[in-house]
C-alpha cells in the first residue's frame, strides 16, 4: 500500500523479497532473492534514492553496510531496538515511558518466579518473530507456563508480562522524518480477538486528557527509538485513565489502515513522505467517524474470494484484498473500512461487509 501511494506521487518503486510475495508482484520491479546477501542487496539498491523495510525483520543492516550514501529508513538502530521485545522494553523504560510489569526471563525458573510475582496471570511473549497473535500466549497456570515456555522460548529466554486489567486498548501512529518533523494521527480504539486486531474505531471515545497523553507518549516513544517513517504505538488504558505502552511497530501499521479513507493524508503516504524527507501531510480526520475490520482467512489453500459483491453493496464500505496467494486460518487477508456520521453506524456496516467476504 505504501508502494501504491509512492507510484501515485511519481516515485519509481522496486521491491526485494526473500520469497515470492503476491501483493507486490504487480508493482513493477519485484525481485525475489536472498536479501541477506550483500551482493544481492548492492545490485538491488543501485539507482535508489532511499531504501525502506516493510517490517522490523527486514535486513536494514545489510543495506546500511554497503559502500554508498543511500539512506535506509527505519535504520538498523531503530529496528534493533524494537524487533527484540526485551530490548524494546529496556529502551522504553530508560526513556521513562510507563510499561506493564514485566520480566526478561533467561530460564524457566525465572519465568515461574515472575508468574507468581505477577499474581498468576501473565502474557508470555516470544522475544523475536511474534506478530498478529503468533508468538504470544495468555498463561493462568504453571502447566500453561511450561507449555508456553516450550513453544515460545528462544536461547535467550522469554518475556513474561503481567496481565493488564485494561478498560480498552488504544493505538497512535507517529510519522517522523529524518530532519525531525513529526505529525501524530488521531488516537484509535482497537479490539483484539485471539491476540489479533479485529476492529479499529476512531474517534476512540476517550477523555481529552487521555487522548493528549497518548499522543505525548507516542511522540516520546518515537524519539526514544529514533524512528523515521511511520511508527505504530499500542497502549493499554487503565480504569483511572492512565496509560501503559504495550508495543511498538516501526512500519505502517494495521491499526492505521483506516487512514486511507478517513484522514487527509494516509499513513502510507506519510511513510513515503517521511523516508524521502518531504513535508509531512495533515494526519487529521476528514470524516466524523470510521471503523476498520480485518478480514481473516478461514481455510488452508489457494485464495478464492467469495462474497465480494455482497460486501461492496453495503453503502460506504471500502474493501481492500491484499493479493496474498495462499489463505490460512486467521491470517490477515484484507480489511474493510466504513466511514459514517458516527461510530455505531460505521461499526455495523463494517462488520456486515467483512462477514460477507470469505477467502
In short:
The chain is of the alpha+beta class.
Describe the structure.
- This protein has about 350 residues and is α+β, with helices and mostly antiparallel strands.
- It folds into four domains: about 1-75, Rossmann fold (3-Layer(aba) Sandwich), CATH 3.40.50; about 100-160, ATP-grasp fold, A domain (Dna Ligase, domain 1), CATH 3.30.1490.20; about 165-285, 2-Layer Sandwich (D-amino Acid Aminotransferase, Chain A, domain 1), CATH 3.30.470; about 290-359, D-amino Acid Aminotransferase, Chain A, domain 1.
- About 30% of the residues lie in helices and about 25% in strands.
- The strands form five sheets. Strands 9, 10, 11, 12, 13, 14, 15, 17 and 19 form a nine-stranded antiparallel sheet that branches. Strands 5-8-6-7 form a four-stranded antiparallel sheet, with helices on one face. It has a two-stranded parallel ribbon with strand order 1-2.
- Strand 3 (about 50), helix 3 and strand 4 form a beta-alpha-beta unit.
- The longest helix is centred in the middle third of the chain and has 17 residues, at about 210-225.
- It is globular, with a radius of gyration of 20 Å.
Amino acid at each position: 500500500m505504501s508502494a501504491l501511494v509512492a507510484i501515485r506521487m511519481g516515485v519509481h518503486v522496486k521491491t526485494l523479497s526473500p520469497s515470492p510475495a503476491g501483493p507486490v508482484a504487480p508493482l513493477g520491479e519485484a525481485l525475489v532473492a536472498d536479501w541477506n546477501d550483500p551482493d544481492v542487496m548492492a545490485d538491488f539498491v543501485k539507482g535508489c534514492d532511499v531504501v525502506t523495510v516493510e517490517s522490523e525483520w527486514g535486513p536494514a543492516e545489510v543495506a546500511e553496510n554497503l559502500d554508498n550514501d543511500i539512506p535506509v529508513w527505519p535504520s538498523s538502530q531503530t529496528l534493533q531496538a524494537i524487533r527484540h521485545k526485551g530490548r524494546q522494553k529496556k529502551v522504553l523504560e530508560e526513556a521513562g515511558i510507563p510499561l506493564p510489569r514485566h520480566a526478561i526471563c533467561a530460564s524457566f525458573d525465572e519465568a515461574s518466579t515472575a508468574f507468581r510475582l505477577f499474581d498468576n496471570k501473565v502474557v508470555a511473549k516470544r522475544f523475536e518473530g511474534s506478530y498478529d497473535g503468533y508468538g504470544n500466549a495468555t498463561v493462568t497456570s504453571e502447566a500453561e507456563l511450561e507449555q508456553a515456555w516450550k513453544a515460545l522460548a528462544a536461547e535467550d529466554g522469554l518475556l513474561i508480562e503481567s496481565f493488564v486489567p485494561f478498560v480498552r486498548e488504544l493505538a497512535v501512529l507517529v510519522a517522523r522524518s529524518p530532519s525531525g518533523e513529526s505529525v501524530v494521527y488521531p488516537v484509535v480504539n482497537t479490539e483484539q480477538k485471539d491476540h489479533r486486531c479485529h476492529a479499529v474505531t476512531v474517534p476512540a471515545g476517550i477523555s481529552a486528557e487521555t487522548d493528549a497523553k497518548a499522543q505525548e507518549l507516542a511522540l516520546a516513544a518515537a524519539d526514544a527509538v529514533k524512528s523515521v517513517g511511520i511508527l505504530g504505538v499500542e497502549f493499554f488504558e487503565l480504569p483511572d485513565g492512565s496509560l501503559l505502552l504495550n508495543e511498538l511497530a516501526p512500519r505502517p501499521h494495521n491499526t492505521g489502515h483506516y487512514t486511507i479513507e478517513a484522514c487527509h493524508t494516509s499513513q502510507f503516504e506519510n511513510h513515503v513522505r517521511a523516508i524521502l524527507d518531504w513535508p509531512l501531510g495533515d494526519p487529521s480526520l476528514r470524516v466524523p467517524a470510521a471503523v476498520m475490520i480485518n478480514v481473516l482467512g478461514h481455510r488452508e489453500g489457494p485464495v478464492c474470494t467469495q462474497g465480494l459483491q455482497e460486501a461492496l453493496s453495503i453503502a460506504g464500505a471500502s474493501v481492500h484484498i491484499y493479493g496474498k496467494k495462499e489463505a490460512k486460518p486467521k491470517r490477515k487477508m484484507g480489511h474493510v473500512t466504513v466511514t459514517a456520521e458516527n461510530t455505531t453506524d460505521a461499526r455495523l456496516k463494517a462488520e456486515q461487509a467483512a462477514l460477507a467476504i470469505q477467502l
